[in-house]
Amino acid sequence: MFTVKFVGGAKKSFSTEHLKIDKSDITIQELINLLPELKPESAPKLDTDNVLIAINGADSSAMDGKLTKIKDNDVVSIIPIIHGGASKKFTFEFSKKQIQAMEIKGQKSIDVKFIDSLREKYPKLLFQAVSSNYILNSYHFKKIISLSIESEKNNILLSNKIETDILMRFALTTQISDAIKNVGIKPKSNFILIAIGNKKTLDSLYRDLFPISVNLFSKNNDGYLKKHFKITKKHIDSIYSKNPLSDILVEKAAVLF
Where are the beta strands (DSSP E) in the chain? Predict the structure, then answer.
């Protein structure tokens, strides 16, 4: 027997903070598969793709991930990464690549050297930083990153590195210097940190930077982007889409050469 401890929003899905499970030597993945059967039908669904799972206080991703075995008397904590209706990170997989975004609070001491230090600490990850003003929402983010990954696959990157291609497509320019000047990291300004790599290392990065992160995509920057890229109401109204502004930005990014 072991105990599952639900933290934060996870308690809403089970109407309790602790749940005793009369099993042992099952994996975390088997527990994840079991949880929907234990949840009250009327309770909200638990998003198991956006949780941290710890065993006796130790993050399972630092063990064997979802293959980690749960023993008798273990305490398994399930911690959602969703806070106050907004997430501290956004992750998705595209073309077998794991991509993660975090919004970092701007500080005087954080500049381009901050990214260099992350590259040294996490050599297996690819990094880019984009001013929060230039990423509209998760839909826009996902579309642009997917576009850059596809461009890399088809050998049509705007630059010789996918990290630079990402920056240029958010900036809607083929000039690297303009992209850096407009959408690159600046002291005292929030930015979205983009990392590409394996999930275990991305989870370590998330834990490392959590204290200086803020909720993602919480700022409404529609007006700023329309003005900066000269997108008119007429143009917006001509697009039949649930996300017209995002689709216009992605379309402009796609035709850069």
Answer: 2-6, 18-21, 26-27, 51-55, 58-59, 69-70, 75-80, 82-83, 86-87, 90-94, 97-104, 126-131, 191-197, 213-214
